[in-house]
Amino acid sequence: VIQAVFFGICVLTDLSSLLTKGNDSQEQERQLKKLISLRDWMMAVLAFPVGVFVVTMFWSIYIYDRELVYPKLLDNFIPAWLNHGMHTTVLPFVLIEMRTTHHQYPSRSCGLAAVCTFAVGYILWVCWIHHVTGVWVYPLLEHLSPGVKIIFFTAVTIIINIFYLVGEVLNNYIWDTQK
């Protein structure tokens, strides 16, 4: 969903940019700048770190023991192409976006705070779903003791923050900029 919303905003930004080119409307220019800021923030805080995290974690766990993250039973309901759409294509598309469009990253402290907020919010949502349904949305969590879950969730948050920093460094390298 994050990737779909992000790339939808990218398309909207590109179309708005094309449609307002040559137009002297300061209001349209102001609105376009807001849209570009939203696109850049989403890339920095959500699309890149969460996208890279999903691909690396999903396929790492899948290779180790697919039943922990994507039970074979799901093959009967979710075709392989859709699985790759959710867990593979995210990475090349987000890298292509980073290479073709310069993104202005927020200050490091604001960016990391936003990434942490998202990670903690998502973890709380996963825990809430378990609380309400009694089922973990990720089968891996069924096999972890409460203490190990806390360590796991902490590690996940740290890893997503590392991916945020990797995205910032990669963006600066590609576009030869310094903070």
Overall description:
The structure is a single chain. The chain has 179 residues and is mostly helical. The chain has one domain. The protein has six helices and no strands. Helix 2 crosses helix 6 (146-174).
**Total domains:** 1
Q: Which value, in Å, is the CA radius of gyration?
A: 19 Å
List how many beta strands DSSP finds. 0
Uncertain runs? none
Q: Could you spell the SSE succession in H and E letters?
A: HHHHHH
Number of helices: 6
Output the structural class.
mainly alpha
Oligomeric state: single chain
Instruction: Using the alpha-carbon principal axes, give the shape.
Output: elongated
Roughly what is the average pLDDT, rounded to an integer?
93
Largest sheet composition: none
Helix fraction by DSSP (H/I, runs of at least 4): over 70%
Question: How much β-strand is present in the residues?
Answer: under 5%
Distance between the termini: 30 Å
